[in-house]
UniProtKB/TrEMBL annotation:
GO terms, molecular function: medium-chain fatty acid-CoA ligase activity
GO BP annotations, alphabetical order: fatty acid metabolic process
Name used for this protein in its record: AMP-binding protein
Every AMP-binding enzyme C-terminal domain range: 469-544
Every AMP-dependent synthetase/ligase domain range: 46-418
One Pfam family hit: AMP-binding_C
Keywords, ordered alphabetically: Ligase, Membrane, Transmembrane, Transmembrane helix
Keyword presence, Cytoplasm: no
Transmembrane domains' residue ranges: 255-277
Superkingdom assignment: Bacteria
Protein family according to the UniProt entry: Belongs to the ATP-dependent AMP-binding enzyme family.
Signal peptide start and end residues: none
Length: 560
């Protein structure tokens, strides 16, 4: 595609002309649809299904009308629960158009996580696919709310907001359930004028998205985003990555994570990019897709690229002869991986992205950065963000070179945790600074170097696991008296989960029984890789468990 290349400064100017604090993503979608028309917007790699910009635009309006017909109002909470698919995307865009708040469900969630999300998230409607081989969503919902999948259902006292559960089925193959086809059919009674009025009532400062994370208290927290968060999270990375209308991006990153949401939906709408995605990661398939699709950009987490570089089929594919940009996020990236990516994928266009659910694309390296900084830092604060390093106790700013806690401020920071004002106040101060819990130092040029994990959080291949949540669940086992969860180093995933268990007097458990108990009720990635039984935990005089001593013990026991 012939086009005039732009400098970074010109790309930033383009972004700032396009995006203002009052800009709505759906207005940009309207404009880009006019420009791209019958060009491909999304392609599902596995099925080969494609959807053009025009088709997605019409489909979005149809589904949005259907949601209105089903009584979805501005501010209502709609859970979108499924793998990467064109149906997922259209449901998200339809919610965005009418001002419904999309709550993003992790595909691995089982009954424990789903029950909490339905209650805390005040979910009115669920839009979902069939689930995974290990988690069938209909079974999860039927166990939580017997009869809820039937067309006529009287509701649940336990989940008072929940009214509708809609399958992604667009062919209406199961008449016993309400499907997306039913929603589309219901929308025929809604006029274009009514849809336009609903869309006009949405403003950029409205909360439009809730993404759940977890906290050290053990309760998941819903980070609230408005449209400014969606758009300004990309001010930095989108100007550092040189992409143009019609360019192609390939990934299998889940779009229920903010990395996938921004990369596969928001970024393409701003720049007119074609997205090709897979609905699960398999190293050989990812490599084959890169070779066949020849994307201008790919994105993934550290563990994905480690797996690809270790894949026996890697050298069967020749990636020379074209420029591919690689964007990495999800966990700290080893220097040896960055060097391997540059050598084996034959590209010097590798960018490391730092972010959290509360402040997604908040820092990144730049291809024009000195090589040392590209390989050892997380780069500088991205557009839309300001960084400072603070004393973790006093929160006073520290000078360059001193180690402390990363604090982030900017228009793209989350607006707070849903229904958790006290938790919000702990991390978001009155001046708008968000305190991450990550320990780092910043040099005199603004490059940030992370030296520690965020408090006790475990980052297993990009999936954030907070020990207290798993610990609290383990305490529901009748044979367990107490439990502590720690993270231990892993070559493959960055970190793995390890459980220390104190059993009740007279009770006997095996390592496998503990694993199976977690695996059966929680997301699989939260299952401990290692389990050890212990008589007591190391504690302070006040009785607080000293987790760092458990980590030291774990490393010795595992020879790490």
């Amino acid at each position: 595609m012939a086009r005039e290349r732009m400098t970074k400064e010109e790309r930033l100017a383009y972004f700032n002309r396009l995006v203002t604090p009052d800009t709505k993503l759906m207005d940009l979608f309207d404009e880009m649809t006019i420009l791209c028309g019958d060009g491909i917007f999304i392609k599902e790699y596995e099925s080969g299904q494609t959807v053009t910009w025009n088709e997605m635009h019409r489909w979005t309006d149809t589904v949005a009308k259907g949601l209105i017909a089903y009584g979805i109002e501005k501010g209502d909470h709609v859970l979108i629960w499924g793998k990467n698919s064109v149906e997922w995307v259209v449901c998200f865009l339809a919610c965005l158009k009418i001002g419904a708040i999309s709550v993003l469900g992790n595909t691995a969630n089982k009954e424990s996580e789903t029950a909490y999300l339905l209650k805390n998230g005040d979910i009115k409607m669920i839009l979902m696919d069939e689930g995974l081989s290990s988690v069938r969503y209909e079974e999860v919902m039927e166990n939580l709310c017997p009869g809820c999948l039937d067309r006529i259902w009287n509701g649940s006292g336990e989940f008072p907001f929940l009214q509708y559960i809609i399958s992604f089925d667009t062919e209406n193959t199961d008449n016993r359930r309400i499907s997306l086809a039913d929603v589309e059919a219901a929308g025929t009674n809604i006029t274009d004028k009514e849809l336009a009025e609903r869309a006009a009532n949405v403003v950029a400062s409205d909360i439009i998205n809730i993404q759940y994370t977890s906290g050290t208290t053990g309760d998941p927290k819903g980070a609230m985003w408005d449209q400014r968060c969606l758009l300004y999270n990309l001010q930095g990375i989108s100007t550092d990555v040189e992409m143009y209308r019609g360019d192609k991006l390939y990934t299998s990153i889940p779009i229920f994570h903010n990395f996938g949401l921004l990369g596969c939906i928001v970024f393409p709408i701003i720049y007119g990019i074609t997205v090709v995605f897979s609905n699960k990661f398999k190293p050989e398939e990812f490599l084959r897709a890169l070779y066949e699709e020849r994307p201008a950009m790919t994105m993934g987490v550290t563990t994905m690229f480690l797996a690809m570089l270790s894949c026996p089929e890697f050298h069967a594919y020749d990636f020379s002869g074209y420029e591919m940009r690689i964007v990495l996020a999800g966990s700290l990236c080893p220097q040896r991986l960055l060097e391997a990516l540059r050598n084996d994928f034959k590209t010097d266009k590798v960018i490391v992205l730092y972010g959290l659910t509360e402040a997604a694309a908040s820092a990144n390296t730049n291809m024009s950065d000195p090589l040392k900084q590209q390989l050892t830092s997380i780069g500088k604060a991205s557009g839309g963000y300001t960084f400072r390093i603070c004393d973790p106790v006093t929160r006073k700013p520290l000078p360059a070179g001193e180690e402390g806690e990363i604090a982030i401020k900017g228009i793209a920071v989350m607006r707070g945790y849903y229904k958790k004002p006290e938790e919000t106040a702990k991390v978001l101060d009155e001046d708008g600074w968000f305190y991450t819990g990550d320990i780092a130092c910043m040099d005199e040029n603004g490059y940030v170097y992370i030296s520690g994990r965020a408090k006790d959080m475990i980052n297993r291949g990009g999936e954030k696991i907070y020990p207290k949540e798993v610990e609290n669940f383990l305490l529901s086992h009748p044979a367990i008296s107490d439990a502590q969860i720690v993270g231990v180093p892993s070559e493959r995933y960055g970190e793995e989960v390890m459980a220390y268990i104190i059993t009740k007097a007279g009770e006997v458990l095996t390592e496998e029984e503990v694993k199976e108990y977690v695996r059966a009720h929680m997301a699989v990635y939260k299952t401990p890789k290692y389990v050890r039984f212990i008589d007591s935990f190391p504690c302070t005089l006040s009785g607080k468990v000293q987790k760092y001593k458990l980590v030291e013990r774990a490393r010795k026991e595992l020879g790490l």
